[in-house]
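Continuing the batch. This is chain 6 of the set; chains 1 through 5 are on the previous pages. Same settings as before, nothing changed between runs. Recording input and output for traceability.
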Amino acid sequence: MKQLQEILGRVAVPLVTPFHADEDVNLEALERLVDHVVCRGYCDSLILTGTTGEFHALTDEERVRVWETAQAAAAGRVPLAAGVGSASTRSTVKLAKIAERLGYDVIMVVLPYYSRPTQVGLLEHFRAVAASVALPILIYNIPLFTGVNMDPETLESLAAIPNIRGIKEEAGIQPVQATAYALRTLPGFSIYCGDDTMVLQVLPQRGVGVVSGGSQVVGNWVKDMISAYFRGDNAGASEIYFRLAPFFAALNQNGRINPIPILRGIIEKVSGIPIGPPRSPLVAATADELAFAEATLERLGAALASPR
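Output for chain 6:
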C-alpha cells in the first residue's frame, strides 16, 4: 500500500476556482490554470475544491464539473485530489463516491464545520467516509475555519483505518501539534503542513511536505526550499523561507483572515489568466493590496513569467 506522500509528493497545490465577473465558474480559465501550474513545475500534485478553491461556496454540481474539467486538463500529468468535505457526513460520503467513480487519486476531507462536533462525532464521521470508498484519505484539520480541532488521540484511532493515510495540519496557534500527531501515528502516516508560513516549522515534526496555495505563484521557490531542507541544507532552506515570508504575509493585509481574495488577484496578475473575483461574501483585493503583494514578488526576484 502506497504512503500518501508517494502519491501527492512534497508540494500539493490547492487550486483556486476561477469565476466570471458574475461569479459563475469559469471552466476555461480553470483549464488554463491547471496547465500553467503543471507546466511550470510548481506542484507534485493538485487538489481541487479545497479551501483555496472555495468549496464551501460551490454547489455539489459545480464541484463535480470542476473535478471533471481539471482531470481532463491535467491529462494524467500529476496526481489529483478532490476536496469532498462538507458540513454533513451524508454529503461528504456522496461526494467521496463521485470522486472515486471519476478516478481521482486521493480525497481530502475537511473536518465538518459549523456544527462543532465532539471528538466522538469526528470519529464516526471519518469512519463512515473511509468505509464508503477505497481511495486514500487526507484528513484536513483547520480549526480557524471549522471551529473544531482534531485531537491527537482521535487521529491515533483514525490512523488505524487502512485508507486514512495522512493529515493536512493547519492548526495555527498550535504550532507543535504535528509532533503530537507524529507521536501517535506510524512513520508511514503522512503529515502535511497546511500553512505556507509554517512549512519549516512542520517539516522537523515528521512533516513530509506542504499543501500550498501560494505555490500557484511561487511554487518553484517552495519546492527549492523543501528540497534544501531534506538534503540537509538548513541554511539554504531558511534563506528561501525568509525571502518568501513577506509575500505570504502580503496575502493577509488589512486584517484579512482569509488570504484567498489577494491570492486570486496576484495569480491573475502574474499568469494573465482571468481568475476573477472570489464569491460573495468575500470581496476582491483592492488595487493597493495587489500592488503591495506584487512588490513583494519583485523583491523576491522569482522568474514568474517562464517555466523552471
